[in-house]
Amino acid sequence: MPSAYLPDRAFIRVSGTGATDFLQNLITPDLDALPDGEARAGALLTPQGKIMFEFLIWRKQEAYVIETGADQQDAFLRRLTMYKLRAPVDLAADETKGVSVFWDESAPPQAVRDSRFAKAGVDLFRLPGPSSSGDARAYEALRIAHGIVVAGTDYALNDAFPHDVLMDVNDGVSFKKGCFVGQEVVSRMKHRGTARRRVVIVHAKGDLPATGTEIMAGGKTIGALGTVLGADGLAIIRTDRAAEAMASGADMTAAGVAVTVSLPAWTGISFPTVDPTAAADD
Fold it and tell me: Does residue 202 contact residue 208 with C-beta atoms inside 8 Å?
């Protein structure tokens, strides 16, 4: 079966009688709607609604497992501890290193389904630890093909809203569960439809330049490359500026390389409608 081991992932365990209430009041996903056996995207936001930490979370017996980047684990645990106060909650860093992922075929029975990929029609499962030795590039290609981004490579923490990274359409944010840190800002973005930055899949006829290279359109920067694998990659761009460029026929480039961009089909999101005449006159 296709699989890969990702060594740069780490885990935090949250347990205790108050674990659900504690997390429910802090993080973006709705834990009351989290099915057993499913790993769901989520974030702990700043009060201004930016992503401070991103993760996947799932239930394990009477506790929750949080999978995050290994470089986020310590700081995330300290932040959760700061919020704990006297809540009946136990927080601990798990010593397990890395995660194994399996897709398209059967996975070990204890693995959990990644709901981000499920939204895109892909059965992908995650299991903590080095249970697989498959090619991580195949997993990266799968992420690119379906617009699944990760912090650090595709966007910087404290610099992106949940909408920017598609958490509003992959169940990473609940707009119904009530208050959580940063909730007022992201709810306002949802109801006013003000999200302008979105994940796109980038394609070139030859190899793309390096991660971090700016994407230009009509003389304006519209975003920057994230994960790159040959001629394909990911980026978070200003969709309004991309729409203007496409309407006016302006080239999109990254370090002089011509690129095209597309929104992940599973999201149902489309580029804004632009008057070609107005775009040409701008």
Answer: yes
Q: Given CA atoms 177, 182, 188, 189 in this order, what sign does their dihedral have?
A: negative
Residue recorded with tokens 């009530």: 178
User: What does each C-alpha distance from 221 to 29, 39, 156, 162, 189 come to in angstroms?
Assistant: 32, 35, 17, 21, 23
* Res. 114: pLDDT tops 70: yes
Quick: pLDDT tens for 141-167.
999 999 999 999 999 999 999 999 999
CA atoms within 13 A on the CB side of 68: 24
Alpha carbons 234 and 144: distance in angstroms, whole number: 6
CA distance 123 to 106: 9
Amino acid type, 212: G
Sign of CA dihedral 215, 216, 217, 220: positive
The predicted structure's pLDDT at residue 82:
96
Segment 8-26, tens digit of pLDDT: 999 999 999 999 999 999 9
Q: Per DSSP, what are the bridge partners of residue 258?
A: 253
Region of 37 please: left (phi>0), alpha (psi -120 to 50) or beta: left
Residue 1 has pLDDT above 90, yes or no: no
Q: Which helix (H) or strand (E) holds 54?
A: strand 51-60
